[in-house]
Amino acid sequence: MHIGIDLGSRNVKMAIKEDGELKFLLFDTVSFYRKYGKLVDGELVVDFSAIGLKEIAKIVSTGYGRQAVKIKGGEEIPEIRAHALGAVYQTGLLDFTLLDLGGQDSKVVLVRKGKLIDFLTNDKCAASTGRYLENMASVLKISLDELGNFYENPVELSSTCAIFGETELLGKVVEGYSLEQLAAGVNYTIFKRIAPMLKKLFSPKVVFTGGVAYSRALKHIIEKELEVEVVIPREPQFNGAIGCLKYGGGL
Predict the structure, then answer these.
(1) In whole angstroms, what is the distance from residue 207 CA to residue 93 CA?
(2) Most buried residue, 175, 205, 213, 231, by most Cβ within 10 Å?
(3) How many Cα neighbours within 13 Å face the side chain of 79?
(4) Strand, helix or coil for residue 210
């Protein structure tokens, strides 16, 4: 059994290859650490048997930014490398720009001939992350899935701050804008935050990964505004874990 693990800020994602079968496991990060993880001498000891994973030949992990920890008995690789490997494996593309929008950070990676060339990250502000979308969906009293439907006639939201953005959105609610316009405005706010990074590391093909990649609205907005093709791999949320699995020889 080979295991690739992405220790994300909101979720822990596992890609597992066993007897030729590829499967995935998803955990809430806090619950995962409480149930299965324990930090010992700077390394994370994971009780894999409690998860039902035994006879493990290789473990490769990556993690969220500077909070990454090494799993005892495994190998750790940088998250940018893991995500680039995962995107190349999942899409078969060699030249593209990778956009990964996760729970609390955003990454843009330039890949040429299958190799990582350059990257930009934002892990200091929640305004272009899944957390921001969760907050805005909560204000609008809709699900994240429903929020991802709207991109037409967006209301103008000038604040790119996750905190002040909520206040501004509430003001627009009071002004009487429709739910569709408000939701589209939220999605365009995300685009405005990531657009400078995508333009700097531009490719005509953008591979979109991370939990936010399930947003149909963001895919449409990026394609329309930047005139690019957006490719969403089969498992966007598990892309980093798949990259770890690939690095460790499990794929």
Answers:
(1) 9
(2) 213
(3) 27
(4) coil
SS3 category, 104? coil
Q: Which two tokens stand for residue 109?
A: 């990676």
pTM (2 decimals)? 0.89
Query: Burial level of 92, CB count in 10 A (0-12/13-18/19+)?
Result: exposed
The CA dihedral of 85, 226, 198, 239, to the nearest 10 degrees, is -30
Q: What is the pLDDT of residues 140-186, one digit of tens each?
A: 999 989 999 999 999 998 766 666 778 888 889 989 999 999 999 99
Instruction: Give the whole-angstrom CA distance, residue 93 versus residue 76.
Output: 25
Which two three-digit tokens encode residue 142?
A: 């809709």
Residue pair 63/71 in contact (Cβ under 8 Å)? The answer is no
Give the list of residues 6+ apart from residue 238 with CB closer than 8 angstroms, or none: 6, 13, 15, 24, 26, 86
Type and span of the H or E element at 77: none
100 sits in the region (left: phi over 0; alpha: psi -120 to 50; else beta) called beta
98's CB contacts (< 8 A; 6+ apart) are 83, 84, 87, 107, 108, 109, 110, 111, 206, 207, 209
Q: What domains are there in the chain, each with its CATH number?
A: 2-79+240-248 (3.30.420.40)
Tokens, residue 155: 């209301």
DSSP letter, residue 152: S
